Amino acid sequence: MKKILYLSLIISLVSCCKKTTEETPLPPSIIDSNNINVSILIDLSDRIDPKTNPNASMEYYQRDTEYIKSIEKGFLNHIKTKRIITYNDQMQVFFNPEPSDPKINGFTKELKVSFDQNTNKAYFNTVEKKYTELPPNIYQSAIKDGNYVGSDIWEFFRNKIKDYCIKDDHRNILFILTDGYMYHKDTMFSQDKKTSYLTSKLIKSNNLNTSDFKKTFEKNNFGFVKANDNLSNLEVIVLGINPEEGNPFEEAVIKEYWENWLKEMKIKKYQIKSADLPSNLEPIIIKAITGKN
């Protein structure tokens, strides 16, 4: 009888311990540390103007809105692979400088979204709706306004990127939608032969319009002035490189500027993609976020 009672007590204790273990969730940091912080920096310069830079197959501002939609899709796909208890993910949109139209700034606030343990399933549809409807409104407002002041990407990397785009204990991913040129009247300077800007005119004046442009580039130490010292916890995907016509090597030159610049700032993971059709870039965008095809 004593043996039976003893055995029952052991079974009861094991069962109790098992139940406690099953019902007590582990801290999120132990379960899943794969939290992502996705940022989108949009270049609202005249590159998006359908009159200045028309494209018969698909206007560049329309390509941008589809790229943004693919980024949102990859973001939500990633979150859906996680347990609710591990939700700690954000996505947001930036411009630099901020547009003068207060409407656009209002849209930007709406596009700042985050998921945590209290997020319900309906929020997925809300995010999807926002990222379908609001980006086209942003571009239409900017085109209608017609005041293209350029995009100060260099200053963003210098003064804002760490505060805006980098969070501890997250994979920080920054998508930059730009044609690859950098220009803003308030941030134009040079240090030796490096510059804070890049225009087609500068490429031409630096004699980077021949097949051996790379030799000229390296010999003269051309490139962007380094804007930050250590961005090793940031991944960057540049989308939309679109060189002006006239120099068959211009696209390669633009990519050389960007690649050297990102490396100098210790960014280990980066991609620089041309202004391809969104259907071709969507798999690349989604894989950059989720790591899956």
UniProtKB/TrEMBL annotation:
Q: Which superkingdom is the protein from?
A: Bacteria
Q: Which PROSITE patterns match?
A: PROKAR_LIPOPROTEIN
Name of this chain's protein: VWFA domain-containing protein
